[in-house]
Amino acid sequence: MNSSSSCAQSRSLSSPVPAAVAVAVTIVSWASAFPFIRIGLQGLTPLHLAAARFATAAILVAAWLAYRRPRLPTRRDALRFAGCGFFGIAIYNALLNTGEKTVAPGAASFIVNSLPIFTALFATIFLGERFNRWAWLGSIFSFAGIGVIASGQPGGLIPGAGASLILLAAVCSAAFIVMQRRLIPVYGPLACTAYTILAGALLLAPWLPGAVSELTTASARTIQAVVVLGVFPAALGYATWAYALGHFGAARASNFLYLTPAVATVLSIALTGDEVRATTVTGGIMTIAGVAYVAWRGRR
Q1: What gap in Å lies between CA 231 and CA 22, rounded to an integer?
Q2: How far is Cα 195 from Cα 197, in angstroms, rounded to an integer?
Q3: What is the pLDDT of residues 180-236, one digit of tens each?
Q4: Taking the C-alpha atoms of 215, 221, 224 and 230 in order, what is their torsion angle to the nearest 10 degrees?
Q5: Looking only at Cα atoms, what is the longest distance across the chain?
Q6: Exposed e or buried b for every residue in 17-47, given b needs 16+ CB within 10 A?
Q7: Neighbours of 101 (CB within 10 A)
Q8: Of 22-26, 77-81, 216-220, which gets the smallest average pLDDT?
Q9: Which residues contact 17 (CB under 8 A, 6 or more apart)?
Q10: Which first-to-last residue range defines the signal peptide (predicted)?
Q11: Of 142, 144, 149, the residue nearest 121 (C-alpha)
């Protein structure tokens, strides 16, 4: 199916209001991951939280796959999806969850928002895409912002500190995005997401028994966090994102995602009582500005 024609058809059949709602649901869903991870960590270890979250998501994904019956991956592509699940689900969430034990959810969201920089770098190295001097300038400014954010968190960017682990999580997510690029034209974005979530859930399965054991004594708030993380950021967010892409196109829709760290910060204040530091605000603005500059000038 031709992607340009399908997007054009989707834009002609969808109205701006549902598409705007889809964008809003996507942003809130993805932003909610950061405070709910912090809540989930009150009763689960980082790996157990990741295993429980994606076991929940895998149930929804398996139901969708059974209903829609998308094209099954070839053996070679199945290995690629395994790689996507390893970097984009298992390692990413292990690092992010561990990092959020000490880093505030709002600060974590701004650090993760640097992943487009790493995606562009990997695309330059492995896919031959352009990354000019303006991109390097924007990247340096963005990384300086991350340094400002980290300076207000325990351990700063010292290897092994929370902020450094979250930055490494962003690198892993960028690697996953680049790996997935060649799979999306073949299988479509939703099927690719579904196969990646299943692969990640399987890789995290060894920690699932421990998660179940901890959940038997966990508070209702912790259990709620696991369900929310499995349903909204993992499943619903990607479904509404696909709808938004069909209406707005990739370039316009991606611009809305710059709002995600701000929404995550507001949700963190409301749900966890997170105190937003001046270093988080200043560094967050620098990080987003650098990422936006790379998107605007860096790859022309």
Answers
A1: 15
A2: 6
A3: 888 988 998 889 999 999 999 999 999 999 999 999 999 999 999 999 999 999 888
A4: -70
A5: 54
A6: eebeebbebbbbbbbbbbbbbbbbbebbbbb
A7: 14
A8: 22-26
A9: none
A10: none
A11: 142
Ranges 104-113, 268-277, 285-294: which has the least confidence: 285-294
> Residue ranges per domain, the chain?
3-298
Provide CB contacts within 8 A for 180, sequence distance 6+: 84, 88, 192, 196
Tokens of 72: 């099954």
**What does each C-alpha distance from 10 to 6, 70, 101, 153, 243 come to in angstroms?**
6, 19, 42, 44, 8
Average pLDDT over residues 40-67: 96
Nearest to 107 by CA among 34, 27, 37, 33: 34
The pLDDT of residue 246: 74
- Is-contact 148 286, C-beta < 8 A? yes
- Percent of the chain exceeding pLDDT 70 equals 91
Which one has a higher pLDDT value, 278 or 128?
A: 278
Residue type, position 246, single letter = G
Q: What is the pTM of this model?
A: 0.86
